[in-house]
Specification:
eight-stranded mixed barrel, seven-stranded antiparallel sheet, about 50% helix, rod-shaped, binds ligand C2E, binds calcium ion
């Protein structure tokens, strides 16, 4: 049992852990999915920012270029290059734009600037390119005038389809930077880079970095490393492809690059995860928090359930193991421990079953509360009796089971006899006038490894024997008991067979009017007539028939036979006297026997008053309410009811008032007992009580003249006994009736 419990705990913990792991796993996978999704989103967003920046920068560059192209076209359209007019025109244009200066250069490289400088540009690449007809944007250059970083836009001037000059605008890198920073999004640093990775301009204002000595790769290396991705980027840029990489440093940095569509330039956008990830961090943070919360709540929930389960189990165990009434072991628990104990000891052991003979009566007469008190009282006896390693438990009502150990059988029996003495005689105040007649079955276990069920069967058999015995307080199990029990089993089968073969016959014992000595009735008593002619008394087979339940059928058979007999007598014109038929207490369980009996009676056309029913007094205590109901129903159908065996065992005068019987049959033992003083008093007052309740009195087992006279004096109505006549076959009774 204990290992089963441990198994259960291990199992439930395993299930719990598995569930927690599965939930946590699922949530982590979910979080991972969210994370991946967010990274994708961040990337996409980076790309969008990148594209927008690229577009804006490209537009801006084109815008600048357009200004120069318009100037060039206008000059072409005018057909001549009038320097003085163009310079003043340029000056006014430049005021509206952010160029550092604007320039017109003549084919030999002589250049005139809007800030009135004159310089030779013949060696400059942008000049040469535009002279060859190209619209050109230079890389980062040092200004001739002041050495500051500039970018130059240059456009050829055509006159008569010949390049006759170049219009230029130089842009300070600083202004470009300002422009870039205004144009581009805050979250993102943008770099315009040439195809070798050299930085042309960045969007970072006040950037003090010396770009001449740094290319974009050097810049990026500040954010983190990802040599594989950076190689990819280098390659992509050479092949004019767009793409993105992620640098892993303190934070992740997303780098998007895109060809600018002019000058082989690239725009490289650098977005720190700091910006992009705030959303992601927030989302991931709440997701993980949620995961933690769910797991926590789940664990709490399971802990609660397990706690509740445990409590419930403990309560169940308590209910199953602890006898609520006495606080001792239940029978179930007793069996569990006893079995275990026996398995692990070589000590000689005895199994004892005990109850007291009249417990039901106590319960009935004094109420359940008193009954419970008596049980606790009995419990104490056992508690004092058992030794440290011994144990006992209560089954139902006053039935106790005990496991005890001993060295010699004599010693064990001495202990048992002591116990019986104590129960009978100890504590006169506490027993409150109750007389306790303990009955014990004892099984001296020959082999502790024997099947426990077998031990229980044996002790119960011994106990049953003790209960049957009129004098023995305890019976020790022996093989004879077993053979008796086996015999009973055989008997049960034989009875059924005898019934089929109609071996049961009916004897009639006359009942006499005490005063007139006339036969005024009879009792039907069953006999078993064996094929060899021997006649068996009911004492031999009725207990077995009661045991198997077959008695119900047997009683019905007797009732039917008696009805047939009465029918025959009445057909013969005989005078009928009422015949009483015995009803076993087993009938209390049969609901429909009443209707069946009434039906048989009317079928045989027997007058109501000609057949009566005897119920045993002991039936009352099995179920008084049920008995009352049955008696009432029988009365309604016109049956007279005789209470049999009054005065044996469970006698309760009070019950006489509760169950409305018509006749009380005083048991033979009652009549025999009148000789002593106390017995006489009881007999006298019982008859008086019956008379005062209008209940007829029949005395049974009257054997002597003395008894007859005494009963006559007491006004007992009817006498049945060997003094007048023994039970006899129907024909004999018929003759007696005629002579009557
Ligand atoms: P019971 O119902 O108390 O029947 C009276 C018993 O006392 C009968 O024993 C009867 O022969 C015996 N008896 C009558 N007068 C005297 C007497 O003066 N001295 C002595 N010593 N005995 C006397 P019997 O016929 O052996 O029946 C024994 C018991 O078997 C009955 O006791 C009854 O309880 C049961 N029984 C008999 N027939 C039936 C039956 O058809 N159905 C049921 N359920 N039980 C039956
Ligand atoms: Ca009877
Ligand atoms: Ca009787």
């Amino acid at each position: 049992m204990r290992s089963a419990k441990r198994e259960r705990i291990v199992l439930s913990t395993a299930v719990l852990m598995a569930a927690a792991i599965i939930i946590a796993g699922a949530l982590i996978i979910y979080a991972g999915m969210i994370n991946r999704h967010l990274i994708e989103e961040v990337n996409e967003r980076g790309e969008q920012i990148s594209e927008r920046n690229e577009f804006l920068i490209e537009e801006e560059m084109k815008e600048q270029m357009n200004i120069l192209m318009e100037i060039s076209e206008r000059i072409t359209a005018s057909g001549t290059l009038d320097m003085e007019r163009e310079m003043s025109e340029l000056k006014s244009i430049n005021e509206r734009h952010a160029f550092k200066r604007m320039v017109i250069a003549l084919p030999d490289g002589t250049a005139y600037t809007t800030d009135d400088l004159e310089m030779d540009l013949s060696k400059r690449e942008f000049f040469q390119r535009s002279m060859q007809g190209e619209n050109f944007i230079s890389g980062r250059l040092a200004d001739y005038a002041d050495g500051k970083d500039i970018i130059v836009f240059s456009v050829p001037i055509y006159l008569n389809d010949q390049v006759e000059g170049v219009v230029l605008a130089s842009y300070s890198v600083q202004t470009m930077q300002k422009m870039l920073s205004v144009l581009t999004s805050e979250e993102c640093d943008s770099y315009v880079v040439d195809d070798e990775g050299g930085i042309v301009v960045s969007s970072i204002i006040n950037d003090t970095t010396d770009y001449d000595s740094q290319d974009i790769h050097a810049v990026l290396s500040r954010f983190g490393e990802n040599s594989r991705d950076e190689k990819k980027m280098q390659k992509d840029i050479q092949q004019k492809k767009a793409g993105s990489i992620i640098l892993e440093g303190k934070e992740e940095t997303y780098v998007h690059y895109l060809s600018l569509g002019m000058n082989d330039w690239y725009i490289v956008n650098v977005i720190s995860s700091e910006h992009l990830n705030s959303d992601r961090d927030y989302l991931m943070g709440t997701t993980y928090l949620l995961v933690a919360a769910v797991v926590f709540v789940f664990i709490l929930f399971i802990a609660y359930i397990m706690g509740a389960e445990k409590k419930k189990r403990q309560k169940m165990e308590q209910l199953m193991n602890v006898d609520e009434l006495t606080g001792g072991n239940t029978y179930l628990h007793f069996c569990d421990i006893a079995e275990e104990k026996l398995k692990h000891t070589d000590k000689k052991a005895a199994l004892i079953s005990m109850d007291i003979q009249n417990f039901k009566l106590i319960n009935e007469m004094y109420g359940n509360q008193e009954g419970d008190r008596v049980l606790r009282y009995l419990y104490q006896f056992w508690e004092n009796w058992v030794r440290e390693d011994e144990l006992f438990g209560r089954r139902i009502a006053d039935r106790f089971f005990v496991l005890a150990f001993y060295d010699t059988p004599e010693e064990m029996l001495k202990r048992i006899e002591d116990f019986i003495e104590h129960v009978k005689n100890d504590n006169p105040q506490e027993r409150k006038g109750h007389v306790f007649r303990p009955k014990l079955g004892v099984y001296l276990i020959p082999d502790n490894q024997e099947d426990f069920l077998h031990m229980q069967t044996n002790v119960i058999m011994a106990h049953a024997e003790a209960k049957k015995s009129s004098h023995a307080a305890y019976i020790i199990y022996n093989d004879q008991i077993k053979s008796i029990n086996l015999r009973n089993k055989e008997l049960e089968d034989e009875i059924e067979q005898a019934y089929e073969k109609r071996e049961f016959i009916i004897y009639y014992q006359p009942k006499y009017d005490t005063k007139t000595k006339q036969i005024i009735g009879a009792e039907a008593l069953i006999r078993w007539k064996k094929p060899d002619g021997t006649i068996l008394t009911p004492y031999v087979f009725i207990p077995a028939a009661e045991q198997s339940g077959f008695i119900v059928k047997l009683d019905e058979y007797v009732f039917e036979m008696v009805c047939s007999q009465l029918r025959e007598w009445s057909r013969k014109g005989k005078k009928l006297v009422p015949v009483s038929v015995n009803l076993s207490r087993e009938h209390l369980r049969e609901e429909d026997f009443i209707e069946k009996y009434a039906q048989i009676r009317s079928q045989k056309q027997i007058p109501e008053e000609s057949i009566e029913l005897e119920i045993t007094e002991s039936a009352i205590f099995q179920n008084p309410e049920k008995l009352l109901e049955i008696v009432n129903r029988l009365h309604n159908l016109g049956f007279r009811i005789l209470m049999d065996d009054f005065g044996t065992g469970y006698s309760s005068l009070m019950m006489l008032g509760k169950v409305p019987v018509d006749v009380m049959k005083l048991d033979k033992s009652f009549i025999d007992g009148y000789e002593d003083d106390k017995g006489e008093k009881i007999l006298v007052s019982t008859i008086r009580l019956a008379q005062s309740l209008d209940i007829g009195v029949t005395a049974e087992g009257v054997e002597t003249e003395e008894q007859y006279k005494f009963l006559k004096e007491l006004n007992c109505d009817v006498i049945q006994g060997y003094y007048f006549a023994k039970p006899m076959p129907a024909e004999e009774f018929e003759k007696m009736l005629e002579e009557n």
